[in-house]
Amino acid sequence: MTDTQHTPPGEPARPQPEGGGITRRRLGAFAFGALAVASVGTATGFSISSGTKSGDLSANLTMIAPAGAGGGWDGFVRETQQAMRLAGVTNNAQVVNIPGAGGTIGLGRFSTMDGQADTILATGTAMTGGIVLNKSPVGFDDVALLARVAEDYDVLIAPADSPIKDLDGLISEWKKDPERFTWTGGSAGSVDHLTIAQLAKANDIDPAAFTYIPKAGGGEAIATLLSHTSDFACTGYNEVSDQVEAGRVKALAIAAPQRLEGIDIPTMTELGSKVDLTNWRGYLGAPGITDEQAGQLIDILRRTRDSAQWQDALARNEWTDVWLTGPALADFIRDDQKQVSELIGELRL
């Protein structure tokens, strides 16, 4: 599943105490935000003092996952950290989590780290959506683009006892009554939500007509599905593959450009529904870094990507290598922003 936030966008505002007081929930959020900032400051301060003196950015590297522990971004960053260490690409790699708002809280903090070349931030489709949905004042133009590294794909699943047997049957019934089914997946505006919207649009169904229950992870989506609180779930295949293989849920189709090797699940596109939204993941550099520093960071990421340890991570997580840098990456991100903005507009969030 794509990276999610604790409070999904679009959730009704909770009542505040009379007199404008700060609730305990908000105090907790402020305290956590301060702690996250302090953690990043400590980690990057250590890196700067020991790594940049020699000009070798591989001496110490801090990687920010703009989501909570256990989520998709966190897993991606920690797999990168592990591959870097085992392959000897970096001497010391640290991970810091700054969750919230589709990655835009982490992005906002990162945008203030001017010139801190030994810190990188994970990014991807979820952040593209978060920037649009949260009307973020900070975007991709405010940081340095480094590399797109990998992508994974959403799978459309139903309970094992669902009367719907395949995607054709689902589309047929969905068209009869666009509001009939309840769906679940990641946060509102996440790649899960947008994949369902694209599937609806591909079949002339109003993308804003269906009921969507946002959840924080694949486990929660599965629970919602098995309790029949929802009819279908759309989530990252790597998060529910064990449930599919165990027969607890059935996979109707996967949102991949072509069938995944060793996985007998048809793609939405081959079944007649052109769905090409992928959950890509990559890294950004801090604003104000030099071309030489950006080059060093890209080389660190490239050497990690070429390592046997990273190739093992790709296979274990059902990720696809989609390495891209330079002007081609900038073009890709512009296209991604356009597509995601249009889909979010269709959802009328």
TrEMBL record:
Gene3D superfamilies: Bordetella uptake gene, domain 1, Periplasmic binding protein-like II. Residues 1-23 are annotated as: Disordered. Belongs to the UPF0065 (bug) family. This is Tripartite tricarboxylate transporter substrate binding protein.
